[in-house]
Design a protein that fits this description.
The complex is a heterodimer of chains A (about 100) and B (about 130).
Chain A lengths: L2 H9 L2 H12 L5 H5 L6 H13 L3 E6 L2 E6 L2 H10 L5 H16 L1
Antiparallel strand pairs in A: 1-2
Chain B lengths: L1 E10 L2 E9 L6 H9 L1 H4 L8 E3 L6 E4 L3 H9 L9 E9 L3 E8 L12 E6 L10
Antiparallel strand pairs in B: 1-2, 1-7, 3-4, 4-5, 5-6, 6-7
Classes of the chains: A mainly alpha (about 100), B alpha+beta (about 130).
Chain lengths: ~100, ~130
Amino acid sequence: VADDDLVFRALADPTRRLLLDLLFARDGRTLTELEQEVEMTRFGVMKHLRVLEDAGLVVRRRHGRETLHFLNPVPIRLVHDRWIGKYTEHGVAMLADLKHDQEEQ
Amino acid sequence: VTTETTQGATTAAGPRPVQVHSVYIKATPERIWQAITDPEWNGRYGYGAPSTFELQPGGAFRSVPGPAMIEGARQMGWPLPDTAVDGEVVEVDPPHRLVQTWRWRWTRGRRPRGSPGSSTRSPRAADPGSAG
């Protein structure tokens, strides 16, 4: 399976996107911490984390007795680079910034 | 390549990782090692500041801003010191593992930020069967 397929499949699920949102808000969480934020069994959360790991979107690190989960945004940047070129980046970012600004108000 | 950034006091479990980034690259570990440690190469990536490493434990690390970075900082009104980032080489195992500390010297007219971080870069051969 190509890298991109794993990334798109991993992102095509609302629970997995929520797990990435949680790590984006605060990186380096344990399974127990993540489980408390999601309405799902521990086993279910583990399965979703596994899919995210296989896609390279989540990286695990042991720290003492804990296993911490980290958001790895590099595959998302590679998707970005596939369709947003050096010369279109500014124009695209301008519209994205405009949207973020206006929707915050 | 995996970069792992740690920060804060060393506990019994070692310093706590705060950020882990990872990417598979179709290249030999030797080439990646050179791209990370040779200023001719590493100045092309990131902020565009060529970095020199004394590749032995206790050796100096220093990152010197390139012309584009100096000009950009000048336009924003941030004076840049000759050395943008400095630190110490902690562990060297070519071409697999490089551990260093670093400290930003680049601040808006204030003294350098006090809290140093450290970073581990580990180019590794891809596992057989894994993508890329």
